[in-house]
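Researcher: Next sequence.
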Amino acid sequence: MKIRHVRAIAVFGIAVVALTGARGSHGGSCGGGSSHSGSSSSGGGSHNNDNATSGGSTGSLSGGSSAHRAERDVKIDECGLDASGKNLTAKITVTNNDSLAYKYDVSLQFKGDLGDTKVNLAIAKVEDLKVSPGASAPGKASTPYTGSGDGSEYKKCEVISASRTAS
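Model: Next structure:
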């Protein structure tokens, strides 16, 4: 096979993976379950400021650019209405496998069933969560519950953005 054919096949394969994204879940159930898939694209990057913004679902290839490292570090442990019935709360664990300490900012969105128009937009944030190198730290994000029921309309929560900055 000629080198130009090999090159064309490689470019085509990368384009297919990039366009399809090898989609995976990156959210947790509001019933207390959780799910986490790593996300990435090929390439490398800086360790000083890693930012990621996502629509909730991300690719699941190994490796990755620095743009997705912060999101990969977040695991949703639990989400739902708190015991008081006044706040939607998400508990997360952030794991820093790097050799530098980072401060993490994470935004989560509470969601209902697809197409459910009765669910109000609910976003909660964890800001400046410091995680030492090679360690994990728990975080808690909370936002007021504006519904009139028991919160059961919220079925899951997802990471919608995450960023980390060397501290």
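Model: DSSP finds two helices and eight strands in the chain. The longest strand covers residues 156-166.
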